[in-house]
Amino acid sequence: MTGALRAVNELVDALHHARPEDLPAMATRVAAGLGALDIELFLVDYEQVDLLPLAGEHDMPGEPVHIDGTLAGRAYTSGEPVRAGTPGDERIWVPVVSGSDRLGVLAAHVGAPPRDDAAFVRDLRVLAAAFAGIVASRRTYGDALERTRRRLPMQLAAEIIWNQLPPLTFATGDAAVAAILEPCYDVGGDAFDYAINGSTLHVAVFDAVGHGIAASALTSLAISAYRNARRCGLDLVDTCRSVDKWVHAQYPDGYVTAALGELDIDTGGYRRINAGHPEELLLRGGRLVRSLPGPTALPLGLGYLGDGRPVVAEERLEPGDALLLYTDGMVEARTADGEQFGIDRLVECVTKALADQVRPAETMRRLVRTLLSYQRDQLQDDATALLLAWDPRP
Fold it and tell me: What positions does the domain PPM-type phosphatase occupy (predicted)?
């Protein structure tokens, strides 16, 4: 049995009665079996600025590690192990990824060089994958993991929204979804959702009128109604009509703009309804091709004002294409002198990251860092974006 298998077996045996705060001790126990002096787990914070060490129940919190400009951050952003130090005192940073959702990094402190260096790194990657699964499954059983990831107190409106959201990133062999949501600790009316069902990848971005708890409650209803309709097997038109009905019934004075889409990952066919939302952007070959026409329906909750069914528009993607869905807060961020971030800067930031051939998740992380820097970390409105990339080529 390899060291990795022994370590995973130990983790599985200990996991049945483990609390989230027991994970650091579990990592320490399996370190020796792999040939490491110590193993430490770092989780990414909500803003994807720092990697924060997970402390045990009676441990003092360690120092955060900045993502930009560090070796640990390089492992996180690249998805590949990074090594530093000298033989006898080396540290190896390994990304901790659940599917394609980046959770943090695992840091192994190594003394004497292992006999089979390549096998040792493979074992660390297996262990990191095991911890990714454990973190993903244990995050709802206690608050230790959540507290570690938060650099600031989270407002109740944001708590409501984050509890509704799927992971920031998802990928199949042919398509990938990556999203961002800001301000992380004070978001109210923005949200996103996605789901894969057979060959159909569903995506949605929502923006409710208003701010604070009232907006987050309205958005929460819209997400739940969207998922309910989707899981009942309704098509895109009836899904839109169902959400519209529920929003109007529960919030007669409110409404939600939304972009609802369905991508056939086998063919690249993209079907969409734009309910009073900013137009999606089609990116091809590292540049903006065009904005997709919209809106094709009234905002959700205002359908009673119209006299027709929501219109489904169709687009045929080419291999390598990407679609950017976003809320108006992305382009309406302003400098102190009132200059807007604008669509041009939005496109420039995304296309530059795509030209650097980074993963969609890293593209969106760079976008949100640029946006926040533009407004000196003080967004005046919620800002959400979702990148949908399709590339079925081998």
Answer: 172-390
Q: Over the range 9-41, which residues count as b (16 or more CB within 10 Å of their CB) and which as e?
A: eebeebbeebebbbbbebbeebbebbbbeebbb
Report domain extents, the chain.
3-149, 156-390
Task: Show Cβ contacts of residue 235 under 8 Å, excluding neighbours closer than 6 positions.
Answer: none
Residues 174-201: tens digit of each pLDDT: 999 999 998 888 888 899 999 999 999 9
CA distance 330 to 334: 10
Number of other residues whose CB lies within 10 A of the CB of residue 376: 9
Mean per-residue pLDDT, 46-69: 89
CATH topology of domain 3-149: Beta-Lactamase (3.30.450)
Structure-token match 């006898």, residue found: 88
Q: What is the CATH number of domain 156-390?
A: 3.60.40.10
pLDDT of residue 264: 97
- The one-letter code for the residue type at 136 is A
d(C-alpha 122, C-alpha 156), whole Å: 42
Cα(358)–Cα(253) distance, integer angstroms? 43
